[in-house]
Structure formats: structure tokens, C-alpha cells
């Protein structure tokens, strides 16, 4: 499987473990030992919250998953402990890069978290602007001026590359991407989950979960592919594609749409092989075969098999 350059970091492969409960605290060891190209932590905030339960619901007809988990329930100091512990133990023999996802309600709060987390030895930081739950995050995601201000503050505060995670649910995506680039972002990632209510029991009149949440899984992949293609057409920054990746073919689709790497999240949420190194070896083998095939390699390197949209027409 081919090495991937991402924001100045050399990844052994383009497979990334996306933010989620599988990439936090004591579970970091298991995640690292999968030897993905990189791991992005669950979103870290300055103050934790009471964890919601139940927080997931899913359907049996492949309609995806809804979650109402906003961000990590761990305290910032707990995160510092676990990340420092991983660093002290040489990341448990893993070559995976470690990227910390952070969220905050102001530029100063984000820069504070970023400075504290950087000291643990992480390789990069991702700012989450795209969470569809909670107050205000979706507003920030669609405001180029605020994206610029928040990103600029974090970039100035740290010495590691900073990426920005954007939402598909904004009407001025190209302007937001441009703002992130001007602020000094080293990369762009997307998409996050989409706001949804997965299902309502028509007998009781109640939804499975008490509020709307984030929608993930295979059904959002077409939206993710379109968003990544749009982002790639309006920036030269490396792009991480996420949303509905379930196998190596899906990952290659994202690379062909313009991504440098792909993040897998929900795929591991309800599977017994969630931490199976063998599963990763299958992915690596599939991508390696594709990369070694001249016709497929040329398609991957082109990353464009469609007519580029005019900048003004990018969603």
C-alpha cells in the first residue's frame, strides 16, 4: 500500500481512523496497533459533559446510524494523560500519525486546547466546525469570517499542521474553504455526520432518540463524494474524505474524487472486527493491488474523472 503525504506528514497508507469513541482514552492503544496511516481522536473540548445514553440508534435495512454524541466525555486533563502515555510508550510500536480533533466556542478557547494538546507530542490538529448537533457549531461552519478567525488563532498557537473539518450542509462551501486556507490551514477534511432523525415509532409517536442527531453510514457516501470533489476543485490543500467508507473500493472512490486519504468511522461502530489488524491488512492489500495496476494507478493519480466545475458553480 502506498505511502501518502498529508499536510507535510508521511503516512504509511491513506487509511485514517476518523474521530469517534473508538479513538479515545485507553482505546487509543487498540487504534494505534491497527497501523492505519493516521488516527484522529474523538473531539476534545475544554469542559466535558455528562455522557448521553442511549446515544446511538440504527436500522436493519442499511439506512445508516444516528448518534447524539456531541464530543468526548473525557476531561481535557484526561486526554493529556492518555496522549502523553501513548507517546511515552512509543505509540505501542505503531507508526500511525496521531491527530487531535478539537472543538470550542471561541478562538481563544480553541487555541488554549490546542496549546495544551500539542505538548503531548501529537502530529497534527483538526478543528471541528461541522458537528450537526448542539448549539452554534453549524453556524460557525457556514461563516467564512468566523472560520478564518478561529483557524487563524489555532494556527498561530501551535507548531503542528492544522486541518479544518467542514460540513456538507453549507451553501457557500468554496468561500469557507478559501477562508480556512487564508488562515493558514494545512488541510481540509469532510464530511461530518448530517443532521437527522433516523426513525419515529408510529405506534408510540416517539423517535428512538430524544433529539435530532448526526447521520452516518453508507447512505451519506454520495454526499461525501460530491462535497470532497467540490472542495478539491477550489483548493490545492490536501483533503481527507469521510462519510460512508465501508471498504477499500469506497476509499479509492474518495481518492479519485480528490482526497489524499480517507477516514473510516461508523464502519467500526457495530462490528466484532472493530480492532482487527487483519481487517486493515485486507484494506491495505486491496489498495496496494489498485495502486500497482497501471490503469488504476493513473486514475488515482489523476483524481479527476469528471468535468471540473467552474469556481462560481461550486456548492
From TrEMBL:
Cofactor: FMN
GO molecular function: dihydroorotate dehydrogenase activity; dihydropyrimidine dehydrogenase (NAD+) activity
InterPro entries: Aldolase_TIM, Dihydroorotate_DH_1_2, Dihydroorotate_DH_cat
EC number: 1.3.1.1
GO CC annotations, alphabetized: cytoplasm
Keywords of this entry: Flavoprotein, FMN, Oxidoreductase, Pyrimidine biosynthesis
Domain Dihydroorotate dehydrogenase catalytic per the UniProt entry, residue ranges: 2-276
Gene Ontology terms: biological process: UMP biosynthetic process
Pfam families registered for this protein in UniProt: DHO_dh
Catalytic activity line of the entry: 5,6-dihydrothymine + NAD(+) = thymine + NADH + H(+); 5,6-dihydrouracil + NAD(+) = uracil + NADH + H(+)
Pathway field: Pyrimidine metabolism; UMP biosynthesis via de novo pathway
Complex and partners: Heterotetramer of 2 PreA and 2 PreT subunits.
Role description: Involved in pyrimidine base degradation. Catalyzes physiologically the reduction of uracil to 5,6-dihydrouracil (DHU) by using NADH as a specific cosubstrate. It also catalyzes the reverse reaction and the reduction of thymine to 5,6-dihydrothymine (DHT).
Descriptive protein name: dihydrouracil dehydrogenase (NAD(+))
Species whose genome carries this gene: Lentihominibacter faecis
Amino acid at each position: 500500500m502506498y505511502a501518502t503525504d498529508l499536510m507535510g506528514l508521511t503516512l504509511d497508507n491513506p487509511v485514517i481512523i476518523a474521530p469517534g469513541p473508538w479513538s479515545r482514552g485507553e482505546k487509543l492503544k487498540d487504534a494505534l496497533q491497527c497501523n492505519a496511516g493516521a488516527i484522529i481522536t474523538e473531539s476534545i473540548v475544554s469542559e466535558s459533559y455528562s455522557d448521553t445514553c442511549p446515544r446511538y440508534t440504527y436500522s436493519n435495512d442499511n439506512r445508516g446510524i444516528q448518534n447524539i454524541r456531541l464530543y468526548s466525555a473525557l476531561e481535557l486533563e484526561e486526554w493529556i494523560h492518555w496522549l502523553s502515555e501513548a507517546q511515552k510508550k512509543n505509540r505501542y510500536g505503531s507508526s500511525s500519525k496521531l491527530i487531535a480533533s478539537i472543538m470550542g466556542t471561541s478562538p481563544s478557547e480553541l487555541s488554549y486546547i490546542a496549546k495544551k494538546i500539542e505538548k503531548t507530542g501529537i502530529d497534527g490538529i483538526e478543528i471541528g466546525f461541522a458537528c450537526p448537533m448542539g448549539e452554534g457549531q453549524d453556524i460557525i461552519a457556514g461563516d467564512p469570517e468566523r472560520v478564518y478567525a478561529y483557524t487563524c488563532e489555532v494556527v498561530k498557537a501551535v507548531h503542528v499542521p492544522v486541518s479544518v473539518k467542514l460540513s456538507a450542509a453549507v451553501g457557500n462551501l468554496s468561500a469557507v474553504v478559501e477562508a480556512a486556507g487564508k488562515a493558514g490551514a494545512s488541510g481540509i477534511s469532510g464530511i461530518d455526520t448530517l443532521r437527522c432523525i433516523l426513525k419515529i415509532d408510529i405506534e408510540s409517536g416517539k423517535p428512538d432518540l430524544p433529539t435530532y442527531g448526526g447521520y452516518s453510514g453508507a447512505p451519506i457516501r454520495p454526499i461525501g463524494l460530491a462535497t470532497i470533489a467540490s472542495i478539491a476543485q477550489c483548493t490545492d490543500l490536501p483533503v481527507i474524505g469521510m462519510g460512508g467508507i465501508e471498504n477499500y473500493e469506497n476509499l479509492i472512490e474518495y481518492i479519485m474524487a480528490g482526497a489524499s486519504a480517507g477516514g473510516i468511522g461508523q464502519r467500526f461502530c457495530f462490528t466484532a472486527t472493530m480492532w482487527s489488524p487483519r481487517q486493515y491488512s485486507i484494506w491495505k492489500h486491496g489498495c496496494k493491488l489498485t495502486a500497482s495496476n497501471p490503469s488504476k494507478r493513473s486514475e488515482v493519480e489523476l483524481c479527476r474523472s469528471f468535468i471540473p466545475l467552474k469556481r462560481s458553480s461550486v456548492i
